[in-house]
Specification:
Layout: H1 2-19, H2 23-32, H3 37-65, H4 68-88, H5 94-102, H6 107-119, H7 123-132, H8 137-165, H9 168-195, H10 199-206, H11 209-237, H12 239-247, H13 254-277, H14 290-316, H15 336-351, H16 355-384, H17 386-394
Length: 407
């Protein structure tokens, strides 16, 4: 019974999340505009039951024929692929939308045939096959079927309203993150089974402080390069930032000090992991742990991703001044690039904790505070007046604002 409940719970959760924003959910919405909800749901249930029964049969057959370690590894790769697929998004084609809108026969028959054909080869079918290689087929069948029906029912009942409350992109990112997390856990499990020893022990042997130092140095170099490129692009794209750039060339000004401290922080941020990698200094013994290296690497890559996203958005910006963006990252936070740099630096510090790294992080935070509070905000307010004050009221300085400003 415990095995059934585990298979049911995991399958229900994975498929339910995978269906959020999926093509099948969009088809359910389209059919529900033409038919009553109950017949459409009956059709979806019949189609899903058949497709997922076929899926668990295939998955169960693979599970009894292949070694579990290799199955877990393939499953891990599959779930990472599902995450990437979810991030890419899913849309109804013009032909699929036209079929949904033209359907005039029995609601149950029409919707069941349409959903059966739509689900063949879809990511939820592939996810169900993968789950059936890991867990009991019956629990996977029932859980995945109810997960898909529940997600499509949610689309029919709350459809448009839900779309307004939960932005489609945010839902996709959340679903992809869960796929990546599940894939990562399967990869750890597969590594342990194939190697015949705990994955954590293998990681501890592979990730010593020398390896961590070189990895942290590579990330620090990438952040430094991205920071330089981003700063140049921002100067070229924003009239306001060109004013700030001219102010930074005045020795002794706040902008000048902000730039000097930033350069110093960048240099120390590169030196710290290099000294550890070259075995000149050792990390703080209390924090020299493979687990912290993994956590720090994840944090650093998150920061790099934020910097990259900020720069891609900047390159595509249609406004002459991205500071006053009405959409994208800068419509929610005013300094996403600086936030990403700070997060990435914090990650490299966790990877190779040293006093030099701590000093680099402190100088970076001070530099960012000077640049933002003493230079950028006063100058932008002077240049843009009320328009900038309204922008600042609806956005966060370093993170998205959760509540409306009271000022």
């Amino acid at each position: 019974m415990d095995g059934f409940l585990l298979a049911f719970a995991i399958s229900f959760g994975v498929v339910f999340v995978a269906e959020l924003g999926d093509k099948s959910q969009l088809m359910a919405l389209a059919f529900a505009t033409r038919y009553r909800a109950l017949p459409v749901l009956v059709g979806i249930t019949l189609a899903t039951t058949a497709v997922h029964l076929l899926s668990v049969a295939v998955g169960h057959g693979l599970g009894t024929a292949l070694p579990t370690g290799w199955i877990s590894l393939v499953a891990a790769v599959a779930f990472v692929g599902f995450g990437a697929w979810t991030l890419r998004g899913d849309r109804l084609t013009a032909d699929e939308r036209a079929k949904a809108e033209r359907a005039t026969g029995s609601a149950v028959l029409t919707s069941s045939v349409a959903f059966f054909l739509a689900e063949l080869g879809d990511k939820t079918m592939l996810a169900t096959i993968t789950l059936a290689t890991q867990y009991g087929w019956f629990g996977v069948w029932i859980g995945s079927t109810l997960g898909m029906v529940g997600a499509d029912a949610l689309a029919i009942v709350v459809g448009r309203k839900l779309g307004r409350l939960l932005p489609e992109r945010a839902v996709s990112i959340g679903a992809a993150a869960l796929f990546f997390l599940f894939g990562g856990s399967l990869a750890v499990e597969a590594t342990g089974e194939l190697a015949g020893r705990p994955a954590w022990a293998i990681l501890a042997d592979a990730v010593d402080h020398h390896a961590a130092g070189w990895m942290a140095l590579a990330i620090a170099v990438l952040v430094a390069v991205l920071g330089a490129i981003g700063g140049r692009r921002l100067l070229e794209a924003s009239p306001a930032r060109r004013e700030i750039g001219r102010a930074a060339r005045v020795p002794g000004s706040a902008a000048w000090w902000g730039r000097v401290l930033y350069v110093g922080a960048t240099a120390l941020g590169l030196v710290a992991p290099l000294l550890v990698a070259a075995d000149v200094i050792d990390p703080v013994p209390l924090l020299d742990d493979p687990g912290l290296v993994v956590i720090g690497a994840g944090l650093a890559l998150l920061g790099v991703s934020l910097v990259l996203a900020s720069q891609i958005e900047l390159r595509r910006a249609g406004s002459p001044d991205p500071v006053l963006a009405s959409r994208g990252l800068r419509s929610r936070m005013r300094n996403p690039g600086l936030t990403g740099i700070v997060v990435a630096t914090a990650g490299t510090l966790v990877m190779v904790p040293t006093l030099v790294g701590v000093l680099a992080a402190v100088l970076l935070v001070v530099s960012v505070r000077i640049q933002v509070r003493a230079v950028r905000e006063p100058m932008l307010a002077q240049l843009h007046g009320e328009e900038y004050l309204a922008y600042a009221a609806r956005t966060g300085r370093y993170l998205p604002r959760l509540t409306a400003s009271r000022s």
